[in-house]
C-alpha cells in the first residue's frame, strides 16, 4: 500500500516536472528574445539598445521594468512614441526576461543598479534619464544614489521605494526558500500561474482598462519559467529589508526627479511610496493623477513622456497635462478587479 502511494506521488511529480519543462520551452518559442545579450563582467544582461538618432532632442533614456516583468513591458509603452528622439536602452533586469542572474549582489536593487550601470558603459552611454516602474523604482533610486555621474534625471512611475505593512504574497515567500522554493517553482508555478495571467494583468491596470493586446505584446508568461520566477520571488522578498535600510538615504539623490503616480493604485500605495519619495528627494516634482491605477506608463504615456521632456530641459506644464489626463481617464471604460489586491508589496510589474 505504502509503495503504491509513493509510486503514485513520484509519478505525479514527474508529470508536473515534465509539464513545466514543456511549457517553459513553449513560452520561449511564443516570446523569443527581442534583445541582445551583452557580457558585463562574468555574466550577460539582455537589452534592446536603440542608438542615438541624428534627430535626437532628448538625453539617453534607460528603462527599468518592475517585478514579474521584462523589457518588453516598457519597450511597448515607449519605444514607438519616442523613436527618433533619443538613444534608448530597455533592460531585462538580472535574472529576468533573457538576462542571466549574475552574482549574489543582484538579489538586491543596489546590485541590479550596478549591473545596469556596467551595461551603460558597454553601450557607450555616459549618462541618461533613468525611468523606473514599480519595483524598477527601487532600482532607479539606488542608481541615483550609487551612480550620480551617470544620472541625468530620474523618472519614477508608480514606484515601490519605501517600507510597507502587510508583507508579501505567500507564493513569493515559498518560492524564495532554498529547497522547498526550488521544488515549488519547478513543479507548480507554471500550471498554477498560467491560469492567473489574465486576472493578474487585469489587476495591474485596475481601475483602468487593460489594452487588449497587452499580454501578447509584453510576454508576462516569461516570469512563470521556474528559474525566473524564483529570481523574481527572491527580489520581492528582499525588497522590504532593502528599502527599510536605504529609504532614509534618498536625500542623497541630487538629480532632477519627477514622480508620476495614481491615487487608485492598489498594487503600490501612492501615499506611502510616491509621497515618501517627494518628501525625501529635494526638489522632486510629484504628479498624482486621479483614478489612475498602477500603469501610468500605458494609461498616461503622454504625461510620462512630457516628464521625460521636462527632465531633458524642455518647458512642460506637467500639472496641466495631468489634469487633461484625468479628464481623459474619466471618459474611458474601467476594468473591474478580478480579485483582491492582497498585500501592498510589489506583486507584478
Topology:
Elements: H1 2-30, E1 36-39, E2 44-50, E3 61-64, H2 71-82, E4 88-91, H3 109-123, E5 128-133, H4 135-146, E6 151-157, H5 170-175, H6 180-187, H7 189-193, H8 197-205, H9 214-218, H10 226-246, E7 257-262, H11 274-280, E8 285-289, H12 296-299, H13 301-311, H14 318-330
Helix pairs in contact: 3-4, 6-10, 13-14
Describe the structure.
The chain contains 14 helices and 8 strands. The chain is α/β, with parallel strands linked by helices. Strand 7 (257-262), helix 11 (274-280) and strand 8 (285-289) form a beta-alpha-beta unit. The termini are far apart. The model is unreliable at 339-349 (pLDDT under 50). This is Alpha/beta hydrolase. Residues 59-172 form the AB hydrolase-1 domain. Keywords: Hydrolase. One of its GO terms (molecular function) is hydrolase activity.
Question: What descriptors fit this protein?
Answer:
349 residues; alpha/beta; Rossmann fold; eight-stranded mixed beta sheet; 14 helices; 12% strand; disordered C terminus
Short description, anyone?
By secondary structure, the protein is of the alpha/beta class. It has helices spanning 2-30, 71-82, 109-123, 135-146, 170-175, 180-187, 189-193, 197-205, 214-218, 226-246, 274-280, 296-299, 301-311, 318-330, and strands at residues 36-39, 44-50, 61-64, 88-91, 128-133, 151-157, 257-262, 285-289.
